[in-house]
Amino acid sequence: MTAVDEARPATSPDARPETGTVLRFPAGFRWGTATAAYQIEGGAAEDGRTPSIWDTFSRTPGKVRNGDTGDIAADHLHRMPDDVRLMKELGVTDYRFSVSWPRVQPTGRGPAVERGLDFYRRLVDELLAAGIRPVATLYHWDLPQELEDAGGWPERDTAHRFAEYAGLVAGALGDRVSTWTTLNEPWCAAFLGYGNGVHAPGRTSDLAALRAAHHLNLAHGAGAKVLRDRLPDTAEISLTLNLHALRPLTDTEADRDAVRRIDAVANRIFLDPVFHGRLPQDLVADTAAVTDWSFVKDGDLEVTSTPIDSLGINYYSPSVVSAGTSESPSPWAGAEQHVAFTPAAGPRTAMDWPVDADGLYELLTRLRDELPSVPVMVTENGAAYDDYADPEGEVHDPERVAYLDGHLGAVHRAIEDGADVRGYFLWSLLDNFEWAYGYSKRFGIVHVDFASQRRTVKDSARWYADVVARGGLERA
């Protein structure tokens, strides 16, 4: 049984009557929260699961703060029913979770392990019983270590292995899960994992990063084809990108060109193959000293542009770009000698990321203009702050409430200005293993005491429950 603070309910809409204008969201808007398997599940060696690249990376001295690992994390594997009850109290309509590839297909090849699939069957059943729509993400960075040993994402075969894995999960859950995301943030997987090495598997090669990016696009397209074949016609198939909101430091040609270079390697390297079946030619030119792109084979771009039903975007903060030189090793393949980054002004989160909701508005309206026929969901948005339980056992996080209020306001403004935004998924439900930061950063709207696994609902969770209950943001 999970220890949960039940001193105050997560949601009490009747206790907070409307006192002013409400910025209402469209009918049917999807109000969700999100997590990722390695960050919350624990049970790293249970149900036949074998190591992922993050198990290996977190055990490598100096890679993760304090030597933390995801071995236990938030123990969601064993506490899942209680965590679903928390979501039900919040009143969310949707829950975005990821499936652990090495829990389902430990070597990345061959048949599924039914014990691994059974956990996700139980999760989906609990969600449906609670009236919550399950949204499944197939890949949130936990590549089976055996596939990395065979070359990982820089190797073409990994894309084919992903498509096989997608079919296994679709076969197990396709009758109950109607919304599917192939990949989460392939930019991070490629450029933080293989470019500057701050994420698993920790490799540092511009060429490996570019190859990984292409093979992730290929995996997405091949996986989407398999999902389309295996799922009901009503299923929604999506991709989630962490698109970068970019601004030039000055209105000079050099700084505008710096933005162009980063836009190519951060945004259009995924948007163009997926939605237009092409490579950005300026990216090909910018990276000519790194590769001739001969790893892109005939027919690949037809696969990468397999039609999908919606696009998820993850947003936390904008980037200010200028002409200059980036630190080495850099995630900006082909741009390192031409681009520098300047910290944006204003308040900052515990991650030292600037708080700027206008960047989210800018991304949503960009997609409105560039991909007008593609519905969008904000699949991650949130902030880390230095939360703690006070002597009364309460967790007050007014900074997070302000962050969320501002960013939901930006979403509402974008919708009013014609952006087709269908939902918002708050990151994250629970405090969790925050990748290379270990357990030092807290993004959750539910506080987790990692020693006892006690859950405590934060003020931000109650605030979000009120927003969901009224279907919008209250304004004085």
UniProtKB/TrEMBL annotation:
Supply the alphabetized keyword list.
Carbohydrate metabolism, Cellulose degradation, Glycosidase, Hydrolase, Polysaccharide degradation
EC primary class: hydrolase
Q: Which reaction does it catalyse?
A: Hydrolysis of terminal, non-reducing beta-D-glucosyl residues with release of beta-D-glucose
EC number in record: 3.2.1.21
Q: State the InterPro entries in the record.
A: GH (IPR017853), GH_1_N_CS (IPR033132), Glyco_hydro_1 (IPR001360), Glyco_hydro_1_beta-glucosidase (IPR017736)
Q: Where is this region: Disordered?
A: 1-20
According to its UniProt record, what is one Pfam family this protein matches?
Glyco_hydro_1
Q: Which domain of life is it from?
A: Bacteria
Q: Which GO terms describe its molecular function?
A: beta-glucosidase activity
The cross-references to Gene3D superfamilies, in alphabetical order and at most eight, read: Glycosidases
- Matching PANTHER family: GLYCOSYL HYDROLASE (PTHR10353), LP05116P (PTHR10353:SF36)
User: Record's family?
Assistant: Belongs to the glycosyl hydrolase 1 family.
For this entry, the protein name equals Beta-glucosidase
Q: Which organism is it from?
A: Streptomyces sindenensis
Q: What is the lineage of its organism?
A: Bacteria, Bacillati, Actinomycetota, Actinomycetes, Kitasatosporales
